[in-house]
Amino acid sequence: MTRLMNCPDPSPAAPARRTFFTQAGVGVALLALAPGVRLVDLARARAEDEPVTSANRWGLLIDTDKCQSGCDECVSACNEEHGIVGHGRPETDAQWIRKVDLKDDQTGHELSIPVLCQHCEEPPCVDVCPTGASFRRDDGIVLVDKHICIGCRYCMMACPFQARSFIHEELTGQRTHAPRGKGTVESCTLCVHRVDKGEQPACVEACHREGHDALVFGDLNDAEDQLTKLTRASATRELRPELKLNTSVRYTRF
Amino acid sequence: MSQTIFHPSRSSRAFWGTCGVLVVLVLTGLFAAHHMESAGHWVTGMTNRVVWGMPHVFAVFLIVTASGALNVASIASVFGRSDYKSLSRLSGLLAAALLIGGLSVLVLDLGRPDRLIVAMTHYNFRSIFAWNIFLYTGFLGIVVVYLWMMFEPRMNRFVTRVGTLAFAWRIILTTGTGSIFGFLVARETFSSALLAPMFIAMSLSFGTAVTLLLGALVFRLKGENLPAELTGKLARLLGYFVLSVSLFVAVSHLTHLYSAGHQGIERFLLIDGRPYSLLFWIGQVLLGTLVPAVLLLSDRFKHAVSVPLGALLVVIGGLAQLYVLIIGGQAYPMSIVSGFSESSTFFDGVIAMYRPSLPEWGLGVGGMALAALIFLVGTRVLPFLPVPTPDQPRA
């Protein structure tokens, strides 16, 4: 569009007419695309009685070039979405997603990345959980069943990303879609309540709203999905690759 | 060979006074647990970084020690040393009491101890923790049967068979407990197959030490001494067990030092990571290994207090060792992105602060007291104690 506006036009009335057509074109395009986007969302939505299957594998791609140092919109959105409120005790307050500032030991290059549950294909937290409260859905989302979590914290010992939090005190302001409980362990659910409705996780939406678009959510099993195309187009890495966990959260450009 | 006669502990002011002190400690532990559960774990020193704290040090110590407390019974019935037979019953009772004490601490520290029934009805068999639930309850069951075989003259002929099963079971149990840490592949301090045999050696050492201490206590409360000859043998055995633990510890650290990726954690635990480095050198190495090894093995230090002092130091050293291993291993930051320095509001890249709180001490000491209380009351209720032979001196 910028390129069009830069084209030379000899007519004096051209600028106004050009602006009109440009805006009209954008409007028409939005009108045409919006239902389509919505349709894509609805196509991803799952009926309540429909079982989760391995046909999907939900994942997240994080573009470290686009992720802004000092921005924590994804963290705030996650906290708001799940009713996570601190008690002024950072060592025991829950964090489902956090910004980690990194500095290359060799070159001094600095960057900032969000770290959350990596939704591993072979999750150590699920392996070690004595009661099976930590589990992985067929679509790759790793969750904690709050009804059978006994609060032993062995999953926290096993998590390679320190992505889990223990609820150390009474909770207030809980959301109905994100049940939590004192004395149990929790972590990022990839906004499973939204994903099941065909929506994007709150952190992804917030990053998009801020105009950074550093987070892309999608289906790693769908060859036509934007996420899959992006992961194929550029080199991605998983955190702690030596553990060979095949994480659903990937990072690019670092 | 003459048949040993057993009788219960004698009721005395000293006996009930000791039980009274233990009851107070147990009640303190229960109160601490109630406080932790009702207020939430924020009242403890444990955090999202140091998720297992002082209660786990005590719980693991008691569980590992429970397995080793069966040493005397195993030596008698599996290895056929009949001179140890007189203390076999005590050995079995002590093993059960220590395990109950350890499991109580572990359960009362859970975020949801009210869901114990869930842990008993939902199993994930990929989890070594779930396997340990079977190993612990199975061990209790086997020890109870083992004691029955010892107590009931008609069943005595099965003692060797049940004793062999108990011996095998406790080796597997300690392997399982060590593997709770050894299987933590994500944490460089723990992830090691060496932890399983190290825990077996620890169980032999700590179990013998506690047998000598609590055995001496229960005999003293009825105005007698532990049989001198057995005490001497057990003390010597304990000395060798202490050395075997130190061998595993040395090999473990040397292996880590050889690997570039582990040098940071080794520097932390051995040199600059206070209080862990101090606990290692002073608590674990000096007080827990070198001094007891000299006291227990050298003939130049033969004295009435050498054995109880050596055993007590082994217990203190054992607690220090578990503190360094469990808490030091969590305090050192886990690297998420190799080759990068990390920082965040979740304390990535920094040494985690941990200070054990009063409730944690209360719960842990309460568990130790519960084990001792069950042991003492057990000796009062049933004939666990051998009647002294005429040549045995009275205290």
**Span between N and C termini of chain B?**
26 Å
Q: Largest interface, per-chain counts?
A: A-B, 58 and 50 residues
**Judging from the principal axes of the Cα atoms, what is the shape of chain A?**
globular
Q: Please give the CATH class of the largest domain in chain A.
A: Alpha Beta
Shape-level CATH architecture of the largest domain in chain A = 2-Layer Sandwich
The helix/strand class of chain B is mainly alpha
Give me the Rg of chain A, rounded.
Answer: 21 Å
Count of strand segments of chain B:
3
* Widest sheet: strand ordering of chain A: 8-1-10-9
Under CATH, the topology of chain B can be stated as Formate dehydrogenase/DMSO reductase fold
Total count of domains of chain B:
1
What brief labels describe this structure?
heterodimer; A: 254 residues; alpha+beta; Alpha-Beta Plaits; 2 domains; four-stranded mixed sheet; two-stranded antiparallel ribbon; 17% strand; globular; disordered N terminus; B: 395 residues; mainly alpha; Formate dehydrogenase/DMSO reductase fold
Task: Give a summary of the structure in a few sentences.
Chain A has helices at residues 2-5, 14-44, 73-82, 124-128, 154-158, 192-195, 202-209, 226-233; strands spanning 58-63, 97-104, 110-116, 134-136, 142-144, 165-166, 185-186, 215-219, 236-237, 249-252. By secondary structure, chain A is α+β, with helices and mostly antiparallel strands.
Structural features, described:
The complex is a heterodimer of chains A (254) and B (395). In chain A, α3 (73-82) crosses α7 (202-209). By secondary structure, chain A is an alpha+beta fold. Chain A has helices at residues 2-5, 14-44, 73-82, 124-128, 154-158, 192-195, 202-209, 226-233; strands at 58-63, 97-104, 110-116, 134-136, 142-144, 165-166, 185-186, 215-219, 236-237, 249-252. The longest helix of chain A has 31 residues, at 14-44. In chain A, the strands form four sheets. A four-stranded mixed beta sheet of chain A has the order 8-1-10-9. In chain A, strands 2-3 form a two-stranded antiparallel sheet. Chain A has a two-stranded antiparallel ribbon with strand order 4-5. Chain A folds into two domains: 2-44; 58-252, Alpha-Beta Plaits. Chain B has a single domain, classed as Up-down Bundle (Formate dehydrogenase/DMSO reductase fold), CATH 1.20.1630. Chain B has 13 helices and three strands. Helix content of chain B is 67%, strand content 2%. A two-stranded antiparallel sheet of chain B has the order 1-3. By secondary structure, chain B is an all-alpha fold. Chain B has helices at 13-39, 54-69, 71-77, 88-109, 116-121, 128-151, 159-182, 195-221, 228-258, 263-272, 276-297, 306-331, 358-381, and strands spanning 6-7, 340-344, 385-386. The two termini of chain B are 26 Å apart. Chain B is globular. In chain B, α4 packs antiparallel against α6 (128-151). At the A-B interface, β2, α4, α5 and β6 of A face α5, α6 and β2 of B. β2 (97-104) of chain A pairs antiparallel with β2 (340-344) of chain B.
